[in-house]
Amino acid sequence: MIKILFKIFFTFALLQTTLYAKEINIDKLVQNSNKSNKKVLLYLHRVGCAYCNSMEEFTLEDELVLEYMQSNYEIVHINVSYKDIFIYKGKKSGGHCLAKRIGYAFYPSSLFLDKNGDIAYPVVGYKNEYEFLVILQYFKEDYYKTMTLKEYKKKIGFTKNLDEEIQDTREHDR
């Protein structure tokens, strides 16, 4: 009886995961983005990652960041904890396997793809909304091809960093 219940439970769980899993073709997305003049951003994250949660809540949901991304990027959210299937470089794999295969099993990771679908500019770790917006602009305008991010920040006069942001927040909370 216990074996039968276990089999029923296991079958139900397997069906549920399969029913909700999506198949996302990154290769086709890259082809379409070339036509629409948008860049492709792969955002790798996982359930239970505090840095991922902060990046999503404070950075990716920031009004300016969100508006810029929607206008200029095709974004693929790859939650490695889910059972979604991704087609990248002609190979199918789950999110975690994909992250390991491309060498970015660190979360969060924002991977910017070039027009061929190759990883042209990887950003590993949490970035606040100010810095992430600068990175989005840096990649979108192809500055990554001619200068470092540090040089680009200097060129545009970007000086805000995470320590300043934390200090600003504390001042506003008082």
Supply database-style keywords.
174 residues, alpha/beta, 52% helix, three-stranded mixed β-sheet, 7 strands
**Domains, number:** 1
Broad CATH class: Alpha Beta
Task: Determine the mean pLDDT.
Answer: 85
Helix content percent band: 40-55%
Secondary structure tally, helices: 8
Short synopsis of the structure:
This protein has a single domain, classed as Glutaredoxin. It contains eight helices and seven strands; from the N terminus they run αβαβααβββαββααα. The protein has helices at 2-20, 26-36, 50-60, 63-72, 95-102, 129-140, 149-156, 162-173, and strands at residues 23-25, 39-45, 73-79, 85-88, 91-94, 109-113, 119-124.
Would you kindly provide a written description of the structure presented here, covering whatever features stand out?
This protein is of the alpha/beta class and 174 residues long. It has a single domain, classed as 3-Layer(aba) Sandwich (Glutaredoxin), CATH 3.40.30.10. The chain has eight helices and seven strands, in the order αβαβααβββαββααα. The strands form two sheets. The chain has a four-stranded mixed β-sheet. Strands 1-4-5 form a three-stranded mixed β-sheet. Helix 4 packs parallel to helix 6. The longest helix is centred in the first third of the chain and has 19 residues. It starts with a helix and ends with a helix.
